[in-house]
Structures are given as structure tokens and as C-alpha cells.
Amino acid sequence: MKRIAILGSTGSIGRSTLSVVESYPDRFQIATLAAGHNSDLAFEQAVRWRPRILSVAKEQDAAALRAKLRSAGLTDVEVLDGAAGTVRVATHPEVDFVVSAIVGVSGLEATYEAVRAGKTVGLANKECLVVAGELITAEARRQGKPLLPIDSEHNAVHQCLRGGRMAEVERVWLTASGGPFLNTPKSEFASITVQQALNHPTWKMGRRITIDSATLMNKGFEVIEACRLFDIPPDRVQVIVHPQSTIHSMVEFVDGSLLAQISVTDMRLPILYALTYPDRVPSDLRFSVRDLRHLDFSPPDMAKFPCLGLAYEAASIGGAKTIALNAADEVAVAAFLDEQIGFEDIPRVIEEVMAATPAGHLESIQKVLSLDREARLLASEFVQRSRHKGSPIRAILQ
Amino acid sequence: MKRIAILGSTGSIGRSTLSVVESYPDRFQIATLAAGHNSDLAFEQAVRWRPRILSVAKEQDAAALRAKLRSAGLTDVEVLDGAAGTVRVATHPEVDFVVSAIVGVSGLEATYEAVRAGKTVGLANKECLVVAGELITAEARRQGKPLLPIDSEHNAVHQCLRGGRMAEVERVWLTASGGPFLNTPKSEFASITVQQALNHPTWKMGRRITIDSATLMNKGFEVIEACRLFDIPPDRVQVIVHPQSTIHSMVEFVDGSLLAQISVTDMRLPILYALTYPDRVPSDLRFSVRDLRHLDFSPPDMAKFPCLGLAYEAASIGGAKTIALNAADEVAVAAFLDEQIGFEDIPRVIEEVMAATPAGHLESIQKVLSLDREARLLASEFVQRSRHKGSPIRAILQ
Q: Do A259 and B256 make contact, defined as CB atoms within 8 angstroms?
């Protein structure tokens, strides 16, 4: 019986994880849960799963939940809040496996503490590896525990890597759907609307990651994640556009063989894989090979999607540069969603913030969080100046 | 240093194996060679590789070679002939690894003896597994030695299987190019010429295997091979048509994940994989992922290609039925190549021979060879009766 903590239980990955746990009651049980701002769902989850600890974001939500759970007769659920509560959820002694699925840097500290506490961690949170990959992977190696990727691409790579030893890997090939603007001419990029950018062809996801998919920054983040997770340099992590997202990623070995992973586009599959690794257990998440017809591939257009190049640059330098990349992207995407800047301004803001951020080594999670705050302030400044002048940001930045 | 015996050194796989051995002089050396009727090439290979034993098919060729090698000053190469010579090549005490690449049942005995002698065997000969798979795999299990497949599909499966345990495999998916008649309407099958059937779209191969590819019997043999090699029932070995032959085969796991193997269509790659397993070594046999554009798939048309259904039937019953299938196919294909029977007569001859062959268990290689002779005689009779009457074989068989 594997005892599971979920960081981000009310989010999309959190709910999918609970669905997987529900399907395998003999294998998994919920030990602790960390939710966010959705108190109603957090209450339902506490009633259904009876965690040792339930943590939520805000103190007043915790107080209300405490009362509500007491009224419902659930006196054995300890209700906590804030960053400290999430860390308690992640490091509880009865937890074997931590699913890290809080979006953004707010999941970082708890994830790092889970690794430090010797837990096996399944990573659905991108930021952990993008901004603090060096720290987290070093700690996991020290603990001798695997970091299991829970996103379709890195999970696919993890599966393909079983076909050989790490020293026998030539390249990792991440597939990219190409996003909604794969076939849009670059000349039309300046006039891309929020509505158009939110219309992702393959995956239904949150708003930021959908925009990140449209700019290919999401793929750029995945390049950085792959570098950190599999300890390989950026020039050996390549991107290939594959609109059907049927092949989730590939590994090329030194002998010239490639292994590719194929499955349905359902996050429960990588979650199940991570939770059961090194075993595989039967599921009803079947991919119908009989219905396979056409798979298309093309190289990514680096000129149309400058975010991908910026990510490679950040991956090469590492440290503070990846923090700047992520923070600037989050701020720029929020400004785009808020119609403060245009689609083509997103990479411009990021490029400037990266240029203004000195390269620096990361010695602690606190340093990561402080660099992250600085980069956000810088990005907000660029965005504000652009917005107040009401002119294209390029004119300001130049 | 791995010491290698090649059974069938002058054939296509044999020559590719020597090319691989030549590329890795620090890893491999040639211990013994068994050639066929090409004495000139056998002589060249003996001079180049200085094997302990060189065996050829015919006694007079052996005598001539012995004299020629003595004149050339090569007195340390023992020249043998016939089946006994091939067995000596396969079982020589200085041999670690045997590449079994003699086409047809004549490679059977030596391959079986190699397994019995505790050698690791790389199998490029289809017949070994099709007609005597039960015997050979049982012996390999007894010896605790792997049987490593050297054909692109089973080699691909072998690689994909590394992604899980055998008990976690749901299905094996063999890809089929579909042959030259993939898009030919069934109504035109009766008038297919030898010339048309020899025109394979993807692989350059021998004449029989090219016709077997056109009828999909080759894929049927591969289904049987997969059943024997990986010890799974025929209903869990499926065929999917994939004209580009880029994905060489796939394994579907119980959790719903599939792994697929991709590489160039060059037999040196599966040879290298088998010779170096469980390691992978760098090669220049690169597949260019950047140039990947379209991959197409479709289910096989069982009505157009009845040979595939016959192979599934033989695979299910096993024993004498797979011997009948292989022997009848070899005779029927030879008759087709000789323009004695039509393209659609090939499955008819096989079906009749299979029907006339009682199911029987295989207790020894001698039994296999005797059943093989009987099935060939039976098949020849059907072909002869068809030829003499000068009428479609269907009329005779009914």
C-alpha cells in the first residue's frame, strides 16, 4: 500500500491523481492533501479521503474548514494553511509518495522539502525543475530516490530511457503539438488575440500553460526540465513538431535506435506510471492502434517562436537565467491575457528581463525565490511602461 | 572480445554481420564461418578473417577450397562441408555468439546445436522459429541463454520490451510495409506477375522473402516467430500496416502505454544490437528525426492477404501445422516464381497442405525435418497437378 500526498489536490492533476487512487484502492491510499483556494472541493476531498492533514492556502479558509469538518464529525483531519502547511503535507512521516502538482513557484519549497525528507516525488509542477532543477535533482541523487516526471513528454522519455543506459543516450526528442499557430504566418503574429491563443488543438489546460503552448515557451520549459531531470546538456534535447501528440516523446540511443512512447492524451496515464513505477498495472486507458492513421512531423520554426530559443539560452546558462525566463514569462503572459501587451511582446519582455538578470548560481530555495521576485518586478516594470505609453513594447525596450 | 560464428556468411545477413564486425575490431572477432555455394566469396572471407573453421555446402567445393587456401599459405583454416560442417562451425568451443543466417530449414540443426552447446544465438533465420520455435526456445530457456532476434521487427520488439516485464505486456504490434500490392484491388490479384511481385517498396531482399512480403506471408511468419520468441499467444500479436517501415514494431503494455522502435532500414543495426546486447554502442547508422514528415498506418486487409490468416491458424495450433505452412509456402512461391502457378494459388496450395497435415507435436529436430519433407512432397503434388492440367489450381483442389 503506497501512502500518497498530493500538493495541489483541487487542481487538474490533483483531481486526476485522486481518480487514479480511487481506481486502485488496493494499491494506494491518500495520506495528506494540500489544496489551494477552492475550499468547497477541499472539504469534499477531506470527507471522501480522510487525510491525516488537509492544508489550504489561506488562514481564514483553514479556520472555516476546521469548523465545517468538526460539524461533519471528522475530528481526525488536521487542517493547516499556507506554505508551512504545504510543507507539513509533503513531509508527513506516513507519506511514501508526493505528487507535486501546485502550479508556480509556490509548490517549490514543499517539493524540495519532500525530496529532502526522502520521499519519492512525482513531478507535475514545471517550475520545480525549470527554476530549481539543479538543487532538486542534486538532493534527489543524495537521497537515492527517483524523481518521476508526471507530464506526458518527460514521462514518455522516462519510459523510453528504459531501453538503455543513460550513457547510451544520444538525444532526447520532445514532441510538440505546435500549438494553435503552427500554420499561421509570422506576419499575422502581431495581431493574435487572447481568444485565438487560448484555443489549443490537443490538450485542455490552464490559461497560462495554454498561452505557453502557443508561444512554444512551454516546450522551452520542457527542454530545461529534460536537461535537469535526465542530466543532459541542452544541445542533446531536441524538439520536433508533431501535431497529433500521439508520440509523446522519443529517446535516440548511440547505436541509432530510437524508442518512442505512444498513448492516449490523458494525464491519468503518466500519473499511474509514476505511482506504480517500476511496475506497470493494467488500466482502461487504451490507445487504439487499429485506429492509427497518420502521424505528421516537422522541425520547429525558431524564427516564429523565439521563446523556444530563449529557453535554450536559459538552459545553457542555468541558475538565475532560468528563473528570469520563468518569472518574466509568467508576468508577460498574464499581461497578454489581460490585453496589456501583444502576443509578440511576450518574448520581448522575457528577452529583456533575461538580459537584465546577471547569471548566478543557486545555493538555496530561498535564493531561488528571491531571484524570482526580482525578475517579476523587472518584468512588471517593462509591461507597465509599455501599457502606459500605449505603444508597442518594442519601442520602449529599444 | 566476443568470438563470433556466422552460419550463412556469404548471404546478405552474413555479409552485413562481417561489415559490423569489421567496424568494431576491438569488440568482435570471427571464430568460424559457414558459407553456402559461393566458393569464391568463401575463399575471400577465409583470407580476410582467418576463421578456425570454414564450412561450405558441397564436398567438392571444400576440397577445392582446401587446396586454394593451402596455396595461399593459410594452413590454419580447417575446411569442412555439409550439415555436419555447419554444426561444427556453430558449436566450436571458441565461439561465444552464433549468428544464424542460413535461409531455410538447412540452418535448423546447426542453430539448435548452437543453443544446446550454450552459445548465445542471434536469429536471422526465420524457419528456426517458425517450424521449430517450441524446441529451440525451450532449449534456450534450459541453457539460460537469450535468443536475440536479428530481423527488424523482432529486434524492435526486443528493444521495446525493455520498457517493462513480460507479464506487463498486453500486445505486440508488428508493422508491415504492406508490400507492393497494398493498394492493388483484390480483383487484380489473379493477374499479378512475378515481375510485379518482386518489386518490394522498402527492403531489398532475396526472391522468396520478397514474394512472402507481397502475400504478407512473411508477416505471418513473423507473427509465429513473435509467439515463439516472446512466449505469447497469437491473439496478442497484431499486425498493422505502415508503408514507410519507419516504426519497426511496437509493444503495448497493460497500463496503456506503447513503446515503438524507430531506425534506418539497415540490417546492420539489429545485427549490432544483438551482438552488443545488453549494451548499446555508437554507430553511424543514424535516423534523421529532423527529416521525419509523415507516417501512415492502416489495418491489414485479411481478405486480400489470406496467407496472414493461415499463419495465425498455424500459430494457434503449432507443431506440424507451422511446418506445413512454411514448407508449402516455400514450394508454392518457387512454383509462382517459375510461373507454374498464379499469385492467388500460393495461399490455396498452403491451405490444402495444412488441411492435409495432421496436427502433431514436435519432439525433435529430426521429426521437424521429416514433417518438412512430407509437407514439401504434398505441396509439390498439388503444384504439379495444377501445372499439368494447365488450369487454375483452384479447380484441382476443389
A: no
